[in-house]
Amino acid sequence: MSPMMRGTTDNGLLLPVADEDGQPFWDFAARGELRVQACADCHRLRFPPRPCCPHCQSFADEWRRMSGRGRIWSYVVPHPPLLPGYAEQAPYNVIVVELTDAPGIRLVGNLVAHADAALDSVDPAALRIGASVEVAFTEIAPGVTVPRWLLERP
User: What is the average pLDDT across 16-25?
Assistant: First the structure.
């Protein structure tokens, strides 16, 4: 996969854009692993990925595997959808998940009924701050896998 993923999927959804620091996140996602960058010197986690530790200024990093569990920290149901590919799936959600094993690390994604479900597969009325979720990985285009989220107890 190229270091920069640009454009949209066949159905008009946006593809992630990976830079040199974030590319490992996407490579691990393609293998079905949720990993977060950590400082190899002071061992503190950081997200989004970046070249230098904001705590000790070290340039040494490592990628730690996470459990894939978290809680909905925030969410939104976009109105109106701005791009046609998203308008076709409205109403859909965008959630912010705080990882259970990494408090303070938050990832943005979508809550779906199952890994390959459409973005509108969960009724917006089912969204709750604090709801327990677990990660699922979905290939949205050839070679491009993204984390999505499932309710632990739907």
Answer: 95
